[in-house]
Write a structure and sequence with these properties.
about 280 residues, alpha/beta, Rossmann fold, six-stranded mixed beta sheet, globular, AAA+_ATPase, ATP binding, ATP-binding, ATP hydrolysis activity
Length: about 280
C-alpha cells in the first residue's frame, strides 16, 4: 500500500476569465523511504497539486479526485478537523520562500514550539529543549540564542533550515519539499539537499521533491513524475528517465541541460510544441 495515493486529481481556479485548470487528471503515489521528484517548468501545476493534497488552496480553487489516501485513510472523507490532525504532523511541507513562510512578528523559537504544542502537546521546558534539538539537527550553530532571533535577523539559508526544523518537528511520515533551494546560492543549495536526503534516510520518511532542476533530480530521486501544463507527461524510475525518456517534453527538458549547449545557445522548452502530447 502506498504511503500517499492520489488518482485523477484536478484543480481549477475561478478567475474573471473563467475556470483555469491548473492540474488536469494526474495520478501521484509515493512509498515510505522513497524520494519522488515532481519536475516541470514554472506553471506546470507541481506546487498546486501538493497544496491541494495539504488542503492549503484558497476558496477559489475547486479540487476533485477519485482517490486521495494517506496510509490507506480516505482524506476526501475527512472533516477539516480530522485532516488538520494529519497536516503538519504526519504530512509536512517546506515552502518555496522560507523568509516569506515564517511569521516576521514571532521569534524562531516561538514558531517551532507552536508546532510542538499543537501536535505533540509539548510545553515549557520540554518544548524548548526539543526546539534546541531540532535546530541542532538541521545544522544551525548556537541554537539556544538563535531561538530568540526573528526571521529577518537570519540569512536565507538559516531560514530554510528553520523551515525544515518546523517541518520535521513531529517526525512526519511524508515530507513535501517545494523548490527548497530556489532562493539560495549554489553552496547552500547543496547543503540543504544533502540535509533533506539525510533526514529522509534517518527517519524513514517518504519525500516528495518539487523542482525544475534536472540535476537535483538525478542526484536525489528514486522515481520521477514529469508535468506540463497540469498534465502528467511521463513517470519512470530516475535511471530510465535519463537514459530512455519517452515523452518529447522530457527529452526537451533534458536537452536544456547546460552540457547540451550548442555554441553559445542552450535549447529551451519554448523551442518545441507539446500540445499534441496532452490532447
Amino acid at each position: 500500500m502506498p504511503l500517499l495515493e492520489i488518482r485523477n486529481l484536478s484543480v481549477a481556479f475561478d478567475t474573471s476569465a473563467g475556470l483555469f485548470h491548473a492540474v488536469d487528471g494526474i495520478d501521484i503515489s509515493v512509498e515510505s523511504r522513497e524520494v519522488l521528484a515532481i519536475v516541470g517548468e514554472s506553471g506546470s501545476g507541481k506546487s498546486v497539486a501538493m497544496l491541494a493534497t495539504m488542503g492549503l488552496l484558497p476558496e477559489t480553487a475547486t479540487v476533485k479526485a477519485d482517490v486521495m489516501r494517506f496510509e490507506g485513510r480516505d482524506m476526501l472523507a475527512m472533516s477539516p478537523q480530522e485532516r488538520g490532525k494529519i497536516i503538519g504532523k504526519d504530512i509536512s511541507m517546506i515552502f518555496q520562500e522560507p523568509v516569506a513562510s515564517l511569521n516576521p512578528c514571532f521569534t524562531v523559537g516561538f514558531q517551532i514550539e507552536e508546532v510542538l504544542r499543537r501536535h505533540l502537546g509539548l510545553r515549557g521546558r520540554d518544548a524548548h529543549k526539543r526546539a534546541i534539538e531540532l535546530l541542532e539537527l538541521v545544522g544551525i550553530p548556537d541554537p539556544v540564542s538563535r531561538l530568540k532571533s526573528f526571521p529577518h535577523q537570519m540569512s536565507g539559508g538559516q531560514c530554510q533550515r528553520v523551515m525544515i526544523a518546523i517541518a520535521i518537528a513531529c517526525k512526519p511520515k511524508l515530507l513535501i519539499a517545494d523548490e527548497p533551494t530556489t532562493a539560495l546560492d549554489v553552496t547552500i543549495q547543496k547543503q540543504i539537499l544533502d540535509l533533506l536526503v539525510s533526514l529522509q534516510i534517518e527517519h524513514g520518511m517518504g519525500l516528495i521533491l518539487i523542482t525544475h532542476d534536472m540535476g537535483v533530480v538525478a542526484e536525489t530521486a528514486d522515481r520521477v513524475i514529469v508535468q506540463y501544463k497540469g498534465h502528467k507527461m511521463e513517470e519512470a524510475d530516475v535511471l530510465s528517465l535519463f537514459e530512455n525518456p519517452q515523452s518529447r517534453y522530457t527529452k526537451a527538458l533534458l536537452s536544456a541541460l547546460p552540457e547540451n549547449a550548442v555554441g553559445d545557445r542552450l535549447p529551451t522548452v519554448a523551442d518545441y510544441d507539446f500540445e499534441a502530447e496532452i490532447r
